[in-house]
Specification:
heterodimer; A: 237 residues; alpha/beta; Rossmann fold; six-stranded mixed β-sheet; four-stranded antiparallel β-sheet; 9 helices; 26% strand; B: 344 residues; mainly alpha; two-stranded antiparallel sheet; 1% strand; globular
Chain lengths: 237, 344
Protein backbone atom coordinates (compact mmCIF):
# COMPACT_ATOMS: atom_id res chain seq x y z
CA UNK A 1 0.00 0.00 0.00
CA UNK A 2 2.75 2.42 -0.74
CA UNK A 3 1.80 3.88 -4.09
CA UNK A 4 -1.57 5.44 -4.87
CA UNK A 5 -1.59 4.92 -8.61
CA UNK A 6 0.32 2.16 -10.34
CA UNK A 7 0.50 2.08 -14.12
CA UNK A 8 1.95 -1.27 -15.20
CA UNK A 9 3.11 -2.00 -18.74
CA UNK A 10 0.29 -0.06 -20.38
CA UNK A 11 0.11 -0.20 -24.16
CA UNK A 12 -2.59 1.59 -26.14
CA UNK A 13 -2.92 0.97 -29.86
CA UNK A 14 -5.29 2.69 -32.29
CA UNK A 15 -5.26 0.34 -35.25
CA UNK A 16 -1.63 0.32 -36.35
CA UNK A 17 -0.68 3.39 -34.33
CA UNK A 18 0.95 2.72 -30.98
CA UNK A 19 0.14 5.74 -28.79
CA UNK A 20 1.52 4.25 -25.57
CA UNK A 21 4.12 1.50 -25.63
CA UNK A 22 4.68 -0.51 -22.46
CA UNK A 23 4.57 2.45 -20.08
CA UNK A 24 4.92 1.94 -16.33
CA UNK A 25 5.07 4.54 -13.57
CA UNK A 26 3.69 5.27 -10.11
CA UNK A 27 2.11 8.20 -8.35
CA UNK A 28 2.61 8.29 -4.58
CA UNK A 29 0.29 9.72 -1.98
CA UNK A 30 0.13 13.53 -1.82
CA UNK A 31 2.62 13.71 -4.67
CA UNK A 32 2.67 15.98 -7.68
CA UNK A 33 3.82 14.04 -10.71
CA UNK A 34 4.38 15.78 -14.03
CA UNK A 35 3.80 13.88 -17.25
CA UNK A 36 5.75 15.67 -19.93
CA UNK A 37 7.01 15.09 -23.43
CA UNK A 38 7.02 16.60 -26.92
CA UNK A 39 3.84 16.89 -29.00
CA UNK A 40 2.42 13.50 -29.93
CA UNK A 41 4.34 11.69 -27.19
CA UNK A 42 1.15 10.02 -25.95
CA UNK A 43 0.58 12.06 -22.79
CA UNK A 44 -3.11 12.70 -23.32
CA UNK A 45 -3.69 9.08 -24.37
CA UNK A 46 -2.09 7.89 -21.12
CA UNK A 47 -4.30 10.34 -19.27
CA UNK A 48 -7.43 9.07 -20.95
CA UNK A 49 -6.47 5.50 -20.04
CA UNK A 50 -6.10 6.42 -16.36
CA UNK A 51 -9.36 8.42 -16.35
CA UNK A 52 -11.35 5.63 -18.01
CA UNK A 53 -11.96 7.36 -21.33
CA UNK A 54 -9.84 4.72 -23.09
CA UNK A 55 -9.34 1.10 -22.09
CA UNK A 56 -5.64 0.13 -22.36
CA UNK A 57 -4.94 -2.46 -25.08
CA UNK A 58 -2.54 -4.19 -22.72
CA UNK A 59 -1.35 -3.62 -19.18
CA UNK A 60 -2.95 -2.77 -15.88
CA UNK A 61 -3.76 0.34 -13.88
CA UNK A 62 -4.34 0.14 -10.12
CA UNK A 63 -5.60 2.76 -7.72
CA UNK A 64 -5.05 1.96 -4.06
CA UNK A 65 -4.35 -1.63 -5.05
CA UNK A 66 -7.66 -1.99 -6.92
CA UNK A 67 -7.69 -2.51 -10.71
CA UNK A 68 -9.24 0.46 -12.53
CA UNK A 69 -8.22 -0.24 -16.13
CA UNK A 70 -11.24 -0.67 -18.38
CA UNK A 71 -13.62 1.09 -15.97
CA UNK A 72 -15.93 3.71 -17.49
CA UNK A 73 -15.16 7.38 -16.79
CA UNK A 74 -18.14 7.62 -14.45
CA UNK A 75 -16.90 4.59 -12.47
CA UNK A 76 -13.41 6.10 -12.30
CA UNK A 77 -14.95 9.28 -10.86
CA UNK A 78 -16.64 7.19 -8.17
CA UNK A 79 -13.49 5.30 -7.14
CA UNK A 80 -11.52 8.50 -6.71
CA UNK A 81 -10.04 9.64 -10.03
CA UNK A 82 -11.02 13.17 -11.04
CA UNK A 83 -9.83 14.95 -14.16
CA UNK A 84 -9.82 18.21 -16.06
CA UNK A 85 -9.65 18.58 -19.83
CA UNK A 86 -7.33 20.41 -22.20
CA UNK A 87 -10.21 22.71 -23.13
CA UNK A 88 -12.11 23.56 -19.96
CA UNK A 89 -15.44 22.01 -21.07
CA UNK A 90 -17.39 24.41 -18.88
CA UNK A 91 -21.14 23.84 -18.58
CA UNK A 92 -22.05 27.12 -20.25
CA UNK A 93 -25.79 27.05 -19.52
CA UNK A 94 -24.99 27.18 -15.80
CA UNK A 95 -23.59 29.63 -13.31
CA UNK A 96 -20.08 29.18 -11.93
CA UNK A 97 -21.39 27.68 -8.67
CA UNK A 98 -23.76 25.33 -10.51
CA UNK A 99 -20.82 23.92 -12.48
CA UNK A 100 -19.18 22.85 -9.23
CA UNK A 101 -22.50 21.61 -7.85
CA UNK A 102 -22.70 19.01 -10.64
CA UNK A 103 -19.52 17.47 -9.25
CA UNK A 104 -20.64 17.74 -5.62
CA UNK A 105 -23.94 16.01 -6.40
CA UNK A 106 -22.14 12.72 -7.06
CA UNK A 107 -21.57 12.12 -3.35
CA UNK A 108 -24.71 13.75 -1.96
CA UNK A 109 -27.80 14.22 -4.09
CA UNK A 110 -28.88 17.32 -2.20
CA UNK A 111 -28.68 20.65 -4.01
CA UNK A 112 -28.47 22.74 -0.81
CA UNK A 113 -25.48 20.77 0.48
CA UNK A 114 -23.95 20.77 -3.01
CA UNK A 115 -24.26 24.54 -3.15
CA UNK A 116 -22.45 25.10 0.14
CA UNK A 117 -19.70 22.70 -0.88
CA UNK A 118 -19.41 24.48 -4.22
CA UNK A 119 -18.96 27.79 -2.44
CA UNK A 120 -16.15 26.33 -0.30
CA UNK A 121 -14.35 25.03 -3.36
CA UNK A 122 -14.80 28.28 -5.27
CA UNK A 123 -13.23 30.01 -2.29
CA UNK A 124 -10.39 27.48 -2.48
CA UNK A 125 -9.59 28.24 -6.15
CA UNK A 126 -10.26 31.98 -5.76
CA UNK A 127 -13.48 32.23 -7.75
CA UNK A 128 -15.96 32.79 -4.91
CA UNK A 129 -16.84 36.31 -5.97
CA UNK A 130 -17.85 35.03 -9.42
CA UNK A 131 -20.14 32.31 -8.02
CA UNK A 132 -23.34 33.55 -9.61
CA UNK A 133 -21.90 34.68 -12.93
CA UNK A 134 -22.68 32.78 -16.13
CA UNK A 135 -19.81 30.30 -16.33
CA UNK A 136 -19.21 30.96 -20.02
CA UNK A 137 -18.22 34.57 -19.29
CA UNK A 138 -15.12 33.61 -17.25
CA UNK A 139 -11.65 34.03 -18.76
CA UNK A 140 -9.73 30.96 -19.95
CA UNK A 141 -7.62 31.00 -16.80
CA UNK A 142 -10.68 31.24 -14.56
CA UNK A 143 -12.46 28.46 -16.46
CA UNK A 144 -9.45 26.17 -15.88
CA UNK A 145 -9.62 26.84 -12.15
CA UNK A 146 -13.38 26.29 -12.29
CA UNK A 147 -12.73 22.87 -13.86
CA UNK A 148 -10.34 22.10 -10.99
CA UNK A 149 -12.95 23.09 -8.40
CA UNK A 150 -15.52 20.96 -10.21
CA UNK A 151 -13.19 17.95 -10.16
CA UNK A 152 -12.29 18.49 -6.48
CA UNK A 153 -15.99 18.35 -5.62
CA UNK A 154 -15.75 14.59 -6.23
CA UNK A 155 -13.40 14.40 -3.22
CA UNK A 156 -10.90 12.45 -5.33
CA UNK A 157 -7.76 10.62 -4.25
CA UNK A 158 -6.06 11.52 -7.51
CA UNK A 159 -6.58 14.58 -9.65
CA UNK A 160 -5.53 14.47 -13.31
CA UNK A 161 -4.93 17.88 -14.84
CA UNK A 162 -4.49 18.21 -18.58
CA UNK A 163 -2.48 21.34 -19.40
CA UNK A 164 -3.79 23.64 -16.67
CA UNK A 165 -1.12 26.20 -17.43
CA UNK A 166 -0.97 26.27 -21.23
CA UNK A 167 -1.69 29.67 -22.71
CA UNK A 168 -1.67 31.51 -19.40
CA UNK A 169 0.33 34.64 -18.64
CA UNK A 170 2.96 34.51 -15.86
CA UNK A 171 0.59 35.83 -13.18
CA UNK A 172 -2.02 33.29 -14.10
CA UNK A 173 0.59 30.50 -14.12
CA UNK A 174 1.50 31.47 -10.55
CA UNK A 175 -2.16 31.37 -9.53
CA UNK A 176 -2.50 27.91 -11.07
CA UNK A 177 0.69 26.72 -9.34
CA UNK A 178 -0.63 27.99 -5.98
CA UNK A 179 -3.84 26.04 -6.47
CA UNK A 180 -1.91 22.83 -7.28
CA UNK A 181 0.25 23.21 -4.18
CA UNK A 182 -2.84 23.77 -2.03
CA UNK A 183 -4.39 20.60 -3.46
CA UNK A 184 -1.32 18.57 -2.54
CA UNK A 185 -1.44 20.06 0.93
CA UNK A 186 -4.91 18.53 1.26
CA UNK A 187 -3.38 15.10 0.68
CA UNK A 188 -4.63 14.72 -2.89
CA UNK A 189 -2.16 13.45 -5.47
CA UNK A 190 -1.89 15.29 -8.77
CA UNK A 191 -0.87 13.90 -12.12
CA UNK A 192 -0.30 16.81 -14.45
CA UNK A 193 0.21 16.77 -18.19
CA UNK A 194 2.07 19.95 -18.94
CA UNK A 195 3.77 21.81 -21.74
CA UNK A 196 4.75 24.76 -19.59
CA UNK A 197 7.89 23.32 -18.00
CA UNK A 198 8.67 26.41 -15.93
CA UNK A 199 5.29 25.92 -14.27
CA UNK A 200 5.60 22.22 -13.48
CA UNK A 201 9.35 21.72 -12.86
CA UNK A 202 9.57 23.72 -9.60
CA UNK A 203 6.58 22.06 -7.94
CA UNK A 204 6.68 18.44 -9.14
CA UNK A 205 7.90 15.69 -6.80
CA UNK A 206 8.58 13.51 -9.83
CA UNK A 207 8.57 13.86 -13.58
CA UNK A 208 7.72 11.15 -16.09
CA UNK A 209 8.88 11.83 -19.64
CA UNK A 210 7.23 10.23 -22.67
CA UNK A 211 8.55 10.30 -26.24
CA UNK A 212 6.97 8.48 -29.18
CA UNK A 213 4.72 6.65 -26.74
CA UNK A 214 7.59 5.21 -24.66
CA UNK A 215 8.75 6.28 -21.24
CA UNK A 216 12.27 7.68 -21.61
CA UNK A 217 12.86 9.07 -18.13
CA UNK A 218 11.37 9.02 -14.63
CA UNK A 219 12.81 10.86 -11.65
CA UNK A 220 13.05 14.13 -9.78
CA UNK A 221 12.88 17.29 -11.89
CA UNK A 222 16.62 17.77 -11.36
CA UNK A 223 17.49 14.25 -12.53
CA UNK A 224 15.19 14.43 -15.53
CA UNK A 225 16.44 17.77 -16.76
CA UNK A 226 20.01 16.36 -16.78
CA UNK A 227 18.96 13.26 -18.74
CA UNK A 228 20.56 13.07 -22.18
CA UNK A 229 17.59 11.36 -23.76
CA UNK A 230 15.19 14.01 -22.44
CA UNK A 231 17.39 16.81 -23.73
CA UNK A 232 17.60 15.07 -27.08
CA UNK A 233 13.85 14.57 -27.24
CA UNK A 234 13.12 18.21 -26.49
CA UNK A 235 15.88 19.84 -28.52
CA UNK A 236 16.29 17.26 -31.29
CA UNK A 237 19.51 15.40 -31.82
CA UNK B 1 -15.09 45.50 0.92
CA UNK B 2 -18.06 45.60 3.30
CA UNK B 3 -18.84 49.19 2.61
CA UNK B 4 -18.80 48.38 -1.09
CA UNK B 5 -21.15 45.42 -0.94
CA UNK B 6 -23.62 46.91 1.50
CA UNK B 7 -25.15 49.63 -0.67
CA UNK B 8 -25.01 47.32 -3.67
CA UNK B 9 -27.06 44.77 -1.80
CA UNK B 10 -29.63 47.32 -0.65
CA UNK B 11 -29.87 48.49 -4.18
CA UNK B 12 -30.46 44.93 -5.39
CA UNK B 13 -32.90 44.06 -2.63
CA UNK B 14 -35.75 46.31 -3.64
CA UNK B 15 -36.19 44.90 -7.15
CA UNK B 16 -35.69 41.39 -5.73
CA UNK B 17 -38.61 41.78 -3.33
CA UNK B 18 -40.59 43.40 -6.10
CA UNK B 19 -39.76 40.51 -8.43
CA UNK B 20 -40.90 37.94 -5.89
CA UNK B 21 -44.31 39.58 -5.56
CA UNK B 22 -44.46 39.95 -9.30
CA UNK B 23 -43.94 36.21 -9.79
CA UNK B 24 -46.49 35.29 -7.15
CA UNK B 25 -48.97 37.75 -8.61
CA UNK B 26 -48.40 36.40 -12.10
CA UNK B 27 -48.86 32.85 -10.86
CA UNK B 28 -52.06 33.64 -9.03
CA UNK B 29 -53.40 35.68 -11.93
CA UNK B 30 -52.49 33.03 -14.50
CA UNK B 31 -54.06 30.23 -12.49
CA UNK B 32 -57.20 32.25 -11.82
CA UNK B 33 -57.57 33.20 -15.49
CA UNK B 34 -57.10 29.58 -16.60
CA UNK B 35 -59.62 28.35 -14.03
CA UNK B 36 -62.43 30.74 -14.94
CA UNK B 37 -61.63 31.26 -18.63
CA UNK B 38 -63.93 28.56 -20.07
CA UNK B 39 -66.89 30.01 -18.16
CA UNK B 40 -66.67 33.08 -20.38
CA UNK B 41 -65.95 31.12 -23.54
CA UNK B 42 -69.28 29.63 -24.49
CA UNK B 43 -68.72 28.48 -28.05
CA UNK B 44 -67.67 24.81 -28.05
CA UNK B 45 -65.22 25.41 -30.88
CA UNK B 46 -63.44 28.11 -28.89
CA UNK B 47 -63.47 25.88 -25.84
CA UNK B 48 -61.94 23.19 -28.02
CA UNK B 49 -59.24 25.62 -29.10
CA UNK B 50 -58.38 26.27 -25.45
CA UNK B 51 -58.20 22.52 -24.80
CA UNK B 52 -55.91 22.11 -27.82
CA UNK B 53 -53.60 24.79 -26.41
CA UNK B 54 -53.46 23.11 -23.00
CA UNK B 55 -52.82 19.70 -24.53
CA UNK B 56 -50.14 21.02 -26.86
CA UNK B 57 -48.54 22.77 -23.88
CA UNK B 58 -48.59 19.56 -21.85
CA UNK B 59 -46.91 17.63 -24.67
CA UNK B 60 -44.36 20.40 -25.08
CA UNK B 61 -43.59 20.25 -21.35
CA UNK B 62 -43.17 16.47 -21.63
CA UNK B 63 -40.90 16.74 -24.69
CA UNK B 64 -38.90 19.51 -23.03
CA UNK B 65 -37.68 17.21 -20.23
CA UNK B 66 -35.73 15.13 -22.73
CA UNK B 67 -35.24 17.60 -25.60
CA UNK B 68 -34.85 20.81 -23.63
CA UNK B 69 -33.30 19.85 -20.29
CA UNK B 70 -31.17 16.92 -21.45
CA UNK B 71 -30.68 18.20 -25.01
CA UNK B 72 -31.68 14.97 -26.75
CA UNK B 73 -33.83 16.18 -29.64
CA UNK B 74 -36.47 13.56 -30.37
CA UNK B 75 -38.70 13.88 -33.41
CA UNK B 76 -40.45 10.63 -32.67
CA UNK B 77 -42.24 11.51 -29.45
CA UNK B 78 -45.62 10.90 -31.05
CA UNK B 79 -44.84 7.21 -30.54
CA UNK B 80 -45.26 7.63 -26.77
CA UNK B 81 -48.40 9.73 -27.22
CA UNK B 82 -49.80 7.01 -29.49
CA UNK B 83 -48.80 4.18 -27.17
CA UNK B 84 -50.58 5.97 -24.33
CA UNK B 85 -53.71 6.46 -26.44
CA UNK B 86 -53.73 2.88 -27.72
CA UNK B 87 -52.94 1.24 -24.37
CA UNK B 88 -55.77 2.89 -22.45
CA UNK B 89 -58.23 2.46 -25.33
CA UNK B 90 -57.40 -1.20 -25.98
CA UNK B 91 -57.53 -2.01 -22.27
CA UNK B 92 -60.91 -0.29 -22.05
CA UNK B 93 -62.39 -1.96 -25.14
CA UNK B 94 -61.04 -5.46 -24.52
CA UNK B 95 -61.01 -5.76 -20.75
CA UNK B 96 -63.20 -2.91 -19.57
CA UNK B 97 -60.28 -1.34 -17.70
CA UNK B 98 -61.05 2.08 -16.29
CA UNK B 99 -59.34 4.77 -18.42
CA UNK B 100 -57.69 6.36 -15.39
CA UNK B 101 -55.87 3.09 -14.74
CA UNK B 102 -55.47 2.60 -18.48
CA UNK B 103 -53.68 5.95 -18.71
CA UNK B 104 -51.22 4.90 -16.00
CA UNK B 105 -50.71 1.56 -17.75
CA UNK B 106 -50.08 3.48 -20.98
CA UNK B 107 -47.44 5.49 -19.17
CA UNK B 108 -45.74 2.34 -17.95
CA UNK B 109 -45.82 0.67 -21.40
CA UNK B 110 -44.49 3.87 -22.89
CA UNK B 111 -41.56 3.94 -20.46
CA UNK B 112 -40.78 0.28 -21.21
CA UNK B 113 -40.85 0.84 -24.97
CA UNK B 114 -38.81 4.02 -24.52
CA UNK B 115 -36.18 2.16 -22.53
CA UNK B 116 -35.87 -0.55 -25.17
CA UNK B 117 -35.57 2.09 -27.89
CA UNK B 118 -33.36 4.42 -25.86
CA UNK B 119 -30.78 1.81 -24.86
CA UNK B 120 -29.26 1.51 -28.35
CA UNK B 121 -30.22 4.91 -29.81
CA UNK B 122 -28.73 7.00 -27.00
CA UNK B 123 -25.33 5.86 -28.23
CA UNK B 124 -25.99 7.98 -31.30
CA UNK B 125 -25.00 11.62 -31.12
CA UNK B 126 -26.89 14.75 -32.17
CA UNK B 127 -28.58 14.48 -35.54
CA UNK B 128 -28.11 10.75 -35.74
CA UNK B 129 -30.15 10.28 -32.59
CA UNK B 130 -32.86 12.56 -33.98
CA UNK B 131 -32.97 10.60 -37.24
CA UNK B 132 -33.28 7.31 -35.36
CA UNK B 133 -36.25 8.67 -33.37
CA UNK B 134 -38.03 9.62 -36.62
CA UNK B 135 -37.43 6.16 -38.06
CA UNK B 136 -38.66 4.34 -34.96
CA UNK B 137 -41.82 6.46 -34.73
CA UNK B 138 -42.56 5.69 -38.40
CA UNK B 139 -42.01 2.02 -37.70
CA UNK B 140 -44.47 2.07 -34.82
CA UNK B 141 -47.01 3.86 -37.00
CA UNK B 142 -46.68 1.12 -39.64
CA UNK B 143 -47.14 -1.57 -37.00
CA UNK B 144 -50.38 0.00 -35.75
CA UNK B 145 -51.59 0.56 -39.32
CA UNK B 146 -51.41 -3.19 -39.87
CA UNK B 147 -52.30 -4.54 -36.45
CA UNK B 148 -55.86 -5.89 -36.61
CA UNK B 149 -56.37 -6.13 -32.83
CA UNK B 150 -55.56 -2.41 -32.65
CA UNK B 151 -58.11 -1.62 -35.36
CA UNK B 152 -55.38 -1.25 -38.00
CA UNK B 153 -55.95 1.75 -40.29
CA UNK B 154 -59.66 1.93 -39.41
CA UNK B 155 -58.93 2.92 -35.83
CA UNK B 156 -60.75 2.33 -32.56
CA UNK B 157 -63.96 3.94 -31.33
CA UNK B 158 -64.79 4.31 -27.65
CA UNK B 159 -68.55 3.94 -27.05
CA UNK B 160 -70.24 6.79 -25.19
CA UNK B 161 -72.66 4.63 -23.23
CA UNK B 162 -71.07 5.08 -19.82
CA UNK B 163 -70.43 8.75 -19.13
CA UNK B 164 -69.01 10.47 -16.10
CA UNK B 165 -65.79 11.22 -14.30
CA UNK B 166 -65.15 7.56 -13.47
CA UNK B 167 -65.02 6.61 -17.14
CA UNK B 168 -63.46 9.92 -18.21
CA UNK B 169 -66.18 10.42 -20.83
CA UNK B 170 -68.24 13.59 -20.99
CA UNK B 171 -70.82 14.98 -23.38
CA UNK B 172 -69.59 18.57 -23.06
CA UNK B 173 -66.14 20.01 -23.65
CA UNK B 174 -65.80 21.72 -20.31
CA UNK B 175 -64.66 18.73 -18.19
CA UNK B 176 -61.94 17.97 -20.73
CA UNK B 177 -60.69 21.51 -20.33
CA UNK B 178 -60.17 20.94 -16.62
CA UNK B 179 -58.64 17.50 -17.18
CA UNK B 180 -56.19 19.01 -19.66
CA UNK B 181 -55.45 21.84 -17.24
CA UNK B 182 -54.86 19.34 -14.42
CA UNK B 183 -52.56 17.22 -16.53
CA UNK B 184 -50.64 20.33 -17.59
CA UNK B 185 -50.31 21.35 -13.93
CA UNK B 186 -48.98 17.89 -13.03
CA UNK B 187 -46.52 17.96 -15.93
CA UNK B 188 -45.31 21.43 -15.00
CA UNK B 189 -44.96 20.26 -11.39
CA UNK B 190 -42.85 17.27 -12.39
CA UNK B 191 -40.80 19.45 -14.71
CA UNK B 192 -40.26 22.04 -11.97
CA UNK B 193 -39.24 19.35 -9.46
CA UNK B 194 -36.75 17.89 -11.95
CA UNK B 195 -35.24 21.27 -12.75
CA UNK B 196 -34.60 21.90 -9.04
CA UNK B 197 -33.33 18.44 -8.13
CA UNK B 198 -29.97 16.88 -8.94
CA UNK B 199 -31.54 15.44 -12.08
CA UNK B 200 -31.95 18.93 -13.52
CA UNK B 201 -28.25 19.62 -13.00
CA UNK B 202 -27.27 16.27 -14.49
CA UNK B 203 -29.51 16.76 -17.53
CA UNK B 204 -28.04 20.20 -18.24
CA UNK B 205 -24.52 18.86 -17.75
CA UNK B 206 -25.21 16.11 -20.31
CA UNK B 207 -26.60 18.68 -22.72
CA UNK B 208 -23.70 21.12 -22.32
CA UNK B 209 -20.64 18.85 -22.16
CA UNK B 210 -21.24 15.10 -22.14
CA UNK B 211 -17.58 14.17 -21.61
CA UNK B 212 -17.20 16.52 -18.67
CA UNK B 213 -20.43 15.14 -17.23
CA UNK B 214 -19.04 11.60 -17.41
CA UNK B 215 -15.83 12.70 -15.71
CA UNK B 216 -18.02 13.94 -12.84
CA UNK B 217 -19.67 10.56 -12.35
CA UNK B 218 -22.73 11.14 -14.55
CA UNK B 219 -23.61 8.04 -16.56
CA UNK B 220 -24.91 9.33 -19.90
CA UNK B 221 -27.07 6.34 -20.85
CA UNK B 222 -28.59 6.04 -17.39
CA UNK B 223 -29.62 9.67 -17.05
CA UNK B 224 -30.76 10.02 -20.65
CA UNK B 225 -33.02 7.03 -19.96
CA UNK B 226 -34.28 8.71 -16.79
CA UNK B 227 -35.10 11.86 -18.79
CA UNK B 228 -36.79 9.76 -21.46
CA UNK B 229 -38.74 7.91 -18.76
CA UNK B 230 -40.34 11.07 -17.34
CA UNK B 231 -40.82 12.51 -20.81
CA UNK B 232 -42.45 9.43 -22.34
CA UNK B 233 -44.67 8.78 -19.31
CA UNK B 234 -46.13 12.28 -19.46
CA UNK B 235 -46.52 12.15 -23.25
CA UNK B 236 -48.44 8.86 -22.88
CA UNK B 237 -50.80 10.43 -20.33
CA UNK B 238 -51.47 13.14 -22.93
CA UNK B 239 -52.26 10.43 -25.45
CA UNK B 240 -54.78 8.73 -23.17
CA UNK B 241 -56.50 12.05 -22.49
CA UNK B 242 -56.69 12.70 -26.23
CA UNK B 243 -58.30 9.30 -26.81
CA UNK B 244 -60.90 9.96 -24.10
CA UNK B 245 -61.65 13.42 -25.49
CA UNK B 246 -62.03 12.40 -29.12
CA UNK B 247 -63.42 8.90 -28.37
CA UNK B 248 -61.80 7.83 -31.61
CA UNK B 249 -58.17 7.09 -32.44
CA UNK B 250 -56.38 5.84 -35.52
CA UNK B 251 -52.70 5.85 -36.55
CA UNK B 252 -53.26 9.02 -38.54
CA UNK B 253 -54.46 10.98 -35.53
CA UNK B 254 -52.27 9.68 -32.66
CA UNK B 255 -49.14 8.44 -34.48
CA UNK B 256 -48.84 11.19 -37.07
CA UNK B 257 -45.28 12.51 -37.63
CA UNK B 258 -46.58 16.07 -37.66
CA UNK B 259 -47.44 15.74 -33.98
CA UNK B 260 -43.84 14.82 -33.10
CA UNK B 261 -42.70 17.95 -34.84
CA UNK B 262 -45.38 19.98 -33.08
CA UNK B 263 -44.19 18.77 -29.66
CA UNK B 264 -40.66 19.87 -30.46
CA UNK B 265 -41.71 23.16 -32.06
CA UNK B 266 -43.93 24.15 -29.15
CA UNK B 267 -40.87 23.91 -26.89
CA UNK B 268 -38.46 25.54 -29.32
CA UNK B 269 -40.88 28.39 -30.07
CA UNK B 270 -41.46 29.03 -26.37
CA UNK B 271 -37.86 28.60 -25.28
CA UNK B 272 -36.02 25.31 -25.06
CA UNK B 273 -35.12 24.11 -21.57
CA UNK B 274 -37.23 26.70 -19.75
CA UNK B 275 -40.06 25.67 -17.46
CA UNK B 276 -42.91 27.72 -18.92
CA UNK B 277 -41.53 28.01 -22.46
CA UNK B 278 -43.64 25.16 -23.82
CA UNK B 279 -46.81 26.73 -22.44
CA UNK B 280 -46.14 30.07 -24.11
CA UNK B 281 -45.04 28.23 -27.25
CA UNK B 282 -48.20 26.13 -27.31
CA UNK B 283 -50.43 29.16 -27.06
CA UNK B 284 -48.54 30.93 -29.84
CA UNK B 285 -48.22 27.84 -32.01
CA UNK B 286 -51.85 26.74 -31.72
CA UNK B 287 -53.08 30.27 -32.46
CA UNK B 288 -50.75 30.50 -35.46
CA UNK B 289 -51.88 27.06 -36.59
CA UNK B 290 -55.59 27.68 -36.24
CA UNK B 291 -55.37 31.32 -37.33
CA UNK B 292 -53.51 30.57 -40.52
CA UNK B 293 -55.82 27.65 -41.21
CA UNK B 294 -58.85 29.92 -40.92
CA UNK B 295 -57.25 32.69 -42.97
CA UNK B 296 -55.53 30.67 -45.68
CA UNK B 297 -56.78 27.10 -45.27
CA UNK B 298 -59.31 27.37 -48.11
CA UNK B 299 -57.01 28.97 -50.67
CA UNK B 300 -54.92 25.91 -51.24
CA UNK B 301 -53.55 22.93 -49.44
CA UNK B 302 -50.58 23.61 -47.25
CA UNK B 303 -50.72 27.42 -47.25
CA UNK B 304 -51.21 27.39 -43.51
CA UNK B 305 -48.11 25.22 -43.14
CA UNK B 306 -46.07 27.73 -45.16
CA UNK B 307 -47.18 30.57 -42.90
CA UNK B 308 -46.25 28.52 -39.81
CA UNK B 309 -42.88 27.70 -41.31
CA UNK B 310 -42.11 31.36 -42.02
CA UNK B 311 -42.97 32.39 -38.47
CA UNK B 312 -40.90 29.57 -37.03
CA UNK B 313 -37.90 30.35 -39.23
CA UNK B 314 -38.15 33.99 -38.17
CA UNK B 315 -38.01 32.96 -34.50
CA UNK B 316 -35.14 30.57 -35.12
CA UNK B 317 -33.11 33.23 -36.93
CA UNK B 318 -33.87 36.29 -34.80
CA UNK B 319 -34.78 34.90 -31.37
CA UNK B 320 -33.23 31.44 -30.87
CA UNK B 321 -33.96 31.68 -27.14
CA UNK B 322 -37.65 31.58 -28.02
CA UNK B 323 -40.52 33.72 -26.81
CA UNK B 324 -39.52 33.26 -23.16
CA UNK B 325 -36.02 34.57 -23.88
CA UNK B 326 -37.48 37.48 -25.78
CA UNK B 327 -39.86 38.29 -22.95
CA UNK B 328 -37.03 38.19 -20.42
CA UNK B 329 -34.94 40.50 -22.59
CA UNK B 330 -37.77 43.02 -22.83
CA UNK B 331 -38.40 42.79 -19.09
CA UNK B 332 -34.71 43.32 -18.26
CA UNK B 333 -34.59 46.32 -20.57
CA UNK B 334 -37.73 47.74 -18.98
CA UNK B 335 -36.38 47.29 -15.45
CA UNK B 336 -32.93 48.68 -16.17
CA UNK B 337 -34.49 51.75 -17.76
CA UNK B 338 -36.73 52.19 -14.76
CA UNK B 339 -33.75 51.93 -12.40
CA UNK B 340 -31.83 54.52 -14.40
CA UNK B 341 -34.87 56.78 -14.21
CA UNK B 342 -35.10 56.28 -10.46
CA UNK B 343 -31.42 57.07 -9.96
CA UNK B 344 -31.66 60.42 -11.65
Amino acid sequence: MSELLEVRNVTKRFGGLVANDDVSFNVGRAQIVGLIGPNGAGKTTMFNCVAGFFAPTEGEIHLDGQPVHGLSPERCAKVGIARTFQVARTFTSMSVAENVMVGALMLRRNTTLARSKAMELLEFVGLARHADRAAGTLTVSEQRRLAVARALALEPKLLLMDEVMAGLNPTEVREAVDVVLKIRAQGISCLIVEHVLEGIMPIADRIVVLDYGKKIADGTPAQVSQDDRVIAAYLGE
Amino acid sequence: MNTLTLPAREHGDAPARFKLNWNLALWALGTAVLLVLPVFVESPSHQNLLILILMAAQLGVAWNILGGFAGQVSLGHVAFFGIGAYTSTMLLLNFGVNPWLGALAGGVVSVLVGTVIGWPTFRLKGHYFTMATIAIAELIQIVFNNWDAAGSAVGLTIPMDKQGIGMMIFASKLPYYYLALGLLAISLGVSWWISRSFLGYYFRAIKDEPDAARSLGVSLTKYKLVALGFSSFLAALGGSLYAQKELYIDPNSVLHTGLSIKMALVSILGGVGSLFGPFIGAAAFTLIEEGSRIAFGGTGRGTDLIVQAVIIIAIAVYKPSGLMGWGKELKDRFFSRKQEGGAK
